[in-house]
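Weekly structure sync, notes
Attendees: PL (lead), two postdocs, one rotation student
Agenda item 3: pending single-chain targets
PL asked that the sequence for the first pending target be pasted directly into the notes so everyone works from the same version. It is reproduced below exactly as submitted, 520 residues in total.
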Amino acid sequence: MPPRPPTVRRTSSAPRARRGALSLSAALLLASCGAPTSKAPAATTPAEPTIYTAAEVAAGAMGAPQGAPIQAVLTAPPLVPPPTNRTAPANVVVNLEVVEKTMPISEGVDYTFWTFGGTVPGSFIRIRQGDHVEFHLQNHPDNKMPHNIDLHAVTGPGGGAASSFTAPGHASQFSFQALNPGLYVYHCATAPVGMHVANGMYGLILVEPPGGLPPVDREYYVMQGDWYTVGKYREKGLQPFDMQKAIEENATYVVFNGAEGALVGDNALQAKVGERVRIYVGNGGPNLVSSFHVIGEIFDKVYFEGGDRFQTNVQTTMIPAGGSAIVEYIVEAPGTYVLVDHSLFRAFNKGAVGMMKVTGGDNLVVYSGKEVDSVYLADKAAATGAPVAAATAATAAGALTLDQQIAAGERLFAGTCSTCHQADGKGLAGVFPPLAGSDWLMADARRSVGVVLNGLSGPVTVNDQPYNSVMPPMSQLNDDEVAHILTYVRNSWGNKGDAVSPAMVAEVRKETPRSVGAAH
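Predicted structure, written out during the meeting:
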């Protein structure tokens, strides 16, 4: 490999090669511009910290580490450790444990995750350029697999992978110097690498520039990943990893922070009107590129690909597998802001949806309108865990009740049917027939199952009123989901009917052909 060309140390007064792109360090002097709360200016403006190249850091330009070793503060997502607030490099000790554990990936769906620190993504690590890091990787004795770690912030063969290969019940140690500032992915690199990453073995490490980052009111940690299970999306029970789906890049789930619903309902990110928010966004992959977007916001800054330059006024930013970005914005109106992968079938059919709930006074000049979570979030808007998971557990125990089915169906109805048929089941006159008090619906449960699975097109008469519209097939739903929804509908808004069983749905699915283009 040819040597690097000579480099020149820059300061903030040096001209930039590209217009519209600023470094993290240059942003320090601009931090107060447009911030929700400003600090009184100092009597004298301090000089901006010198920007060091990796070669200069390696040559000792930043000086030796100072003080006693520091134990790194690690945080679970979506939390972020506090800024280092240091003016010189330090000796930093990082302890990270690999834990293999079974956790929910969706309501009623479990998966055996391989994790750094017990969470997906793994613990957030925050250090400073020039730090000397002593890294300890422990592999829990109950684990079944060997693991290691490749940190993209490490300059050296394998990023630490060869030095950290660790069997269950063992620990490894290696050290490195943080030469480059930026936001970097780390991941397991034990063969088969794709499988280890697909099981959740990734996280982010932030290397602050010498002057730190501009202050903000809130910082969060969000990481996208794609998941490959033997069962289809939301198929209940413990789902094993599907290697063939992963090779074909046919993801069952695409989610933020390791699970569908990890950032919605009670788990939503929080902010207040007027606050500046910074999100450290990563993409663990292993396969898919993220089109990260916050519905209702425009990013004031995007430090693209986790580097030290930012673009302004960005709507959607691309984050490659194994890459990152830092996004910042000020929230100027209250309500629920929806985080998505704007490859929208991933958002609404595979789980890549999150929320940020913003409280505070209305600014009707900025935005005048009503907040409707259901338009974007549907069944994901509610807190996760209760009705669908309870119905799944009861089914497994052979003790499912009508009330449990109705509760689960109400939750699922909000995400699949309420936009057309309305939350009160009354439909839209002349367009979508009512479900409340529907003679057509209540006459034949099996026929209703067939309509959900195969769709319905053409004229139909409901309660002596003609309708002629199209209902697309919803055969992507699992048998239990169809059963719960129809049980809810047949026992709500004055309807009185019996339960629809998953076995009935399975029979109708087997007996009737899917239409062209429908899911299977």
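Discussion points:
- Confidence is low (pLDDT under 50) at residues 1-46.
- The longest strand covers residues 91-106.
Action: rotation student to compare against the earlier draft before next sync.
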